Amino acid sequence: MHYLPHWKITAAQRLAVELAGEGQPLALIGHSWGADTVLRAAKALVAQAFLVGADPVAKPLTRLTARDDRPASAVRVVHVDAAPSAYDRSDLVKAAGFITGGGVPRAFQQAETRIDTELNHWNFRGMMQARGPDGQSAEDWLAAFPDLLLSQTAG
What is the pLDDT of residue 38? Predict the structure, then answer.
């Protein structure tokens, strides 16, 4: 597992390409502005990848990615949305990102799986464990990802 902050776009692209070249199955997970970085890394790939956006927000300086379609490398896209009933400061960060960045990137708006939560924007762990309408969490989808890849290459 590798962690890169959202501003390391080029490093994320290089790492994704390197790991894909080694035959590693790739799951790219981005929280908040990190989802924008994940999309840019996925666009650099020829290999297939699993994408998770945990409360994804397009970055202000890369507004165009908010309009970009799903990367060709994406096998599955999961969008976990945080819409709390009681707001805190982290939700103001999300709101500012929406105003300046253009909202949720289109690739996550068009996700096959959407999981709505009542969590605050900061609660990444809770978002990854939240269950969607099908009873699956983002963590469950990630655990099934290698099998999903095998079934697609076999079929």
Answer: 92
CA distance 26 to 50: 6
Q: How far is Cα 134 from Cα 28, in angstroms, rounded to an integer?
A: 22
Please give the Cα distance from 8 to 134 (Å, whole number): 34
Q: What is the signed CA dihedral for 88, 83, 127, 76, rounded to 10 degrees?
A: -140
- Tokens (6 digits) for 111: 């996700």
Eight-class DSSP state of 119: -
What are the residues facing 82 on neighbouring strands? 117
The pLDDT of residue 60: 75
Biggest CA–CA distance in the chain, Å, is 47
pLDDT tens for each residue of 86-114: 999 999 888 887 787 778 888 999 999 99
Please determine, for residue 151, whether its predicted confidence score (pLDDT) is greater than 70.
Answer: no
How crowded is residue 123: how many other Cβ atoms within 10 Å of its Cβ?
A: 20
